[in-house]
Design goal:
Blueprint: E1 25-26, H1 29-32, H2 37-52, H3 54-77, E2 84-87, H4 90-98, E3 108-112, H5 117-128, E4 134-138, H6 146-159, E5 168-173, H7 185-195, E6 198-202, H8 215-218, E7 222-226, H9 227-230, E8 238-241, H10 271-276, H11 284-287, H12 289-299, H13 302-324, E9 339-343, H14 353-366, E10 369-370, E11 372-376, E12 379-385, H15 392-412
Parallel strand pairs: 1-10, 3-4, 3-5, 5-6, 6-7
Antiparallel strand pairs: 2-8, 7-8, 9-12, 11-12
Helix pairs in contact: 2-3, 4-5, 6-7, 13-15, 14-15
Length: about 425
């Protein structure tokens, strides 16, 4: 495998280790991830092994391999192996937790205006159906500081106190999807503990982007992160962390496993086994997380990888803003890890904002490049992901292509400078 070779310097020399079209300008690793070739090779080898004897694999061989992958992930996030299981993606993990609570009228679910769409809709659904817990949405408008976020969070908590014998659950992003900003989620977990609130951390972008995670020390009540975004695993794969003290809350996997035992009949732990097998799936994305971690170790390890990507995000964002003639959302860098948000030179009064957003997406793809674009706080922005194969020149070239897109979009909708 490639990780046995002498590693090249980060930048374009790394592109040979990824299956990207050489002509495609990819600054959107944050959405779907980008699987390295060595991991793809490991998946192909595992797939061949599975197909050679499906019964042997699915009945016997998969379990120790899955346990090893869980062990490796647990080490990275500072957890015990039997506190982590794999699920298809972060949305599934968040849904699993939220749908396992025994909701009552008078319970409160805190979410944010920046909560990821499917998670926000899940909260809405739970409040729409009996017994109708209460939804409390907290408004975040960036740029804003971590201190501002914490103060806003405290204000909403104190304005929505717990009713007698009722629970409160806060769904908190570790790193928001759009804008791609780091929240002070560790401090928010502390606040939740002080206030008697369950903390559910949607850390979709965290593993592989936040260095030195220690969940035992941070101690959230639930934490979910995609391995296919920044940890170099193949999509789709996410890790769900539930500390032992809360595993009784997760009574059932989604879908329900044949190993499900009614809580009234349980005599011991039943958390991990339900997620080991809850229907036939392709286990290769889960099992080859081990290969993804080994590839990252070969590249130099988490600190070296993220030092490069973070520095590139900061410098690349400034370079992109210069080309576009705009500014970065977070000039001080407090909110920025490996994703940077840069304003697009576009009007804010399109007659149909959804149609304009779709036009932007299609137009930048037609330029054989991509970075996520979105509207936030009365401005259009693009979110760029810095990865080990990127260089400053990629941000500058992206800027030139976005300038063409913005000019075309303005002309399409009848705007003149």
């Amino acid at each position: 495998m490639a990780y046995k070779e002498e590693k090249p310097e980060f930048g374009h020399a790394m592109l040979k280790y990824f299956a990207l079209d050489p002509s495609y300008l990819n600054l959107n690793n944050g959405s779907y991830g980008t699987t390295p070739r060595p991991v793809l090779e490991a998946i192909r080898a595992l797939s061949d092994r599975i197909e050679a004897n499906p019964d042997l694999f699915h009945r016997i061989d998969f379990k120790p391999m899955l346990d090893e992958a869980r062990s490796r992930v647990a080490q990275i996030i500072g957890a015990n192996r039997d506190e982590v299981v794999f699920v298809p993606n972060a949305s599934m993990g968040v849904n699993t937790v939220l749908r396992n609570f025994d909701w009552e009228e008078g319970d409160i679910i805190f979410a944010f205006t920046t909560t990821y769409g499917s998670v926000s809709r899940t909260v809405q659904y739970l409040t729409d159906v009996p017994p109708h817990p209460t939804k409390c949405v907290i408004n975040l408008e960036f740029p804003m500081t971590h201190a501002d976020i914490l103060e806003t969070f405290k204000q909403h908590i104190h304005a929505n106190p717990a009713k007698p014998n009722k629970k409160r659950v806060a769904v908190i992003d570790g790193i928001v999807s759009n804008p791609g900003v780091l929240l002070p989620w560790k401090e928010m977990v502390k606040i939740c503990k002080q206030e008697g609130i369950f903390s559910l951390i949607d850390a979709a972008h965290s593993i592989g982007q936040e260095v030195g995670l220690d969940l035992h020390k941070i101690d959230p009540d639930f934490w979910i992160s995609n391995c296919h975004k920044w940890l170099s695993a193949r999509r789709s794969c996410a890790v769900l962390y539930v500390p032992e003290r809360n595993q009784h809350i997760i009574k059932c996997s989604i879908p329900t496993s044949h190993t499900y035992i009614s809580p009234k009949d349980r005599t011991g732990p039943n958390f991990v086994v339900q997620f080991d097998w809850n229907g036939t799936i392709d286990y290769s994305s889960y099992i080859t997380v081990t290969d993804a971690i080994e590839f990252r170790e070969w590249m130099g390890g988490e600190e070296k990888i993220n030092e490069y990507c973070h520095s590139l995000a900061i410098k690349g964002g400034q370079a992109l803003a210069k080309v576009l003639g705009t500014s970065v959302m977070d000039p001080d860098g407090e909110l920025t890890l490996n994703m940077v948000n840069v304003a697009l030179p576009l009007p804010v009064d399109f007659p149909n904002m959804a149609a304009a957003a779709e036009s932007m997406r299609n137009a930048i793809l037609a330029k054989n490049a991509f970075s996520a674009s979105y509207f936030h706080n009365n401005s259009w922005w693009t979110r760029c992901s810095a990865q080990v194969w990127n260089e400053i020149g990629d941000f500058e070239e992206l800027g030139r292509r976005w300038l063409e897109v913005c000019a075309d979009i303005k002309q399409q909708y009848g705007f003149t400078d």
